[in-house]
């Protein structure tokens, strides 16, 4: 064997139990469950709490808008806020985020406006925001493709010598995709500055984890690729923040990729068109509701006298304001130009598309109401 390869350090192995820094009853964890990670400071934790509360209110508003027909579809992250918000809080300005359809509140936390975010879920054919401005790739629906994009961008950053790190989310089901394997493998081979955050929410639509993988944890997979793996309580925002931030630091300082599994649960249906009662028991949902990530952090911060009633009220009113803005934005009917469909297919227009465009233009001009465009 090549000496260089034989001397590679053995990467950190996932712990037997998920890493946790705040217990479900809101107490600081001081034993080996913390795996040597330190509790983030109170200001950071309050920032996470605030964003989680705002995100949950945003999503309850969005779900109501889907029922009113204002939005086509929406995959909820209810119960997964700790993973989503901790990951975004771990990013620096120059870093890139590669989200999936599930990770809308991550976009909100990174500063994308609600109108820009929801264009996608309204059925517009373009991503509503500028990926370069926010350093967020379009939300990916083809499973695990975003992981390859993250590795590509991270590798390019490394070659160019800048200190950008890419963070990508994946679902438990997505780890069965070939794209996930290729992303993990080449991230490690090229020592790309990338952090993989797998949100194991126990289901891939109706397929439970037990039917998805025989691995003890998804974090264990990291070892086979030669990168550190961390198995974390995904409903503990403090632990997710501490572990993800350390992965970001490792990547930024040339230490290569990290794979982090946050063990969590999707409380809502897969999307508003799914009926979870067909494949899981309500008692299971109730059990996970009792492990709510927002309540847990709230209890800790209230005990520490950081989350006072006045602070709590202020956060609640911020959340209400965002919900009202979301309603206002989505209650306006979008003015769409069907011809725009052709504008961004190719950099240079093709004659066949120009013909189709002319055909549609003619149809719109002659059809009833066409002149209203
Ligand atoms: C390549 C590909 N195959 C299948 C699908 C259909 N599909 C959409 S969501 C989903 C389940 C994904 O589960 P998981 O990765 O655990 O993410 P979650 O929805 O739980 O966040 C499937 C199979 C798809 N979008 N892309
Ligand atoms: Mg899943």
What layout of secondary structure does this protein have?
Elements: H1 3-6, H2 42-67, H3 81-89, E1 96-98, H4 104-109, H5 114-122, H6 131-134, H7 145-160, E2 166-171, H8 178-189, E3 194-200, E4 203-204, E5 207-208, H9 209-212, H10 221-225, E6 229-233, H11 237-252, E7 258-263, H12 282-289, H13 293-303, H14 309-330, H15 351-366
Parallel strand pairs: 1-2, 2-3, 3-7, 6-7
Antiparallel strand pairs: 4-5
The structure holds thiamine diphosphate and magnesium ion (MG).
Number of strands: 7
Could you give me the name of the CATH homologous superfamily of the largest domain?
Thiamin diphosphate (ThDP)-binding fold, Pyr/PP domains
Please identify the top-level CATH class of the largest domain: Alpha Beta
Count of structural domains: 2
Q: Indicate the percent of residues in helices.
A: 40-55%
Q: Profile the largest sheet.
A: 5 strands, parallel
| Rg, Cα atoms, Å | 22 Å
CATH topology title of the largest domain: Rossmann fold
Count of discrete alpha- or pi-helical segments spanning 4 or more residues:
15
Strands side by side in the biggest sheet: 1-2-3-7-6
Shape: globular
Structure description:
With 373 residues, the protein is α/β, with parallel strands linked by helices. The protein folds into 2 domains: 12-330, Thiamin diphosphate (ThDP)-binding fold, Pyr/PP domains (Rossmann fold, 3-Layer(aba) Sandwich); 338-372. The chain is built from 15 helices and 7 strands. It has helices spanning 3-6, 42-67, 81-89, 104-109, 114-122, 131-134, 145-160, 178-189, 209-212, 221-225, 237-252, 282-289, 293-303, 309-330, 351-366, and strands spanning 96-98, 166-171, 194-200, 203-204, 207-208, 229-233, 258-263. Strands 1-2-3-7-6 form a 5-stranded parallel β-sheet, with helices on both faces. Strands 4-5 form a two-stranded antiparallel ribbon. The chain starts with a helix and ends in a 7-residue tail after the last helix. The mean pLDDT is 95. Bound molecules: thiamine diphosphate and magnesium ion.
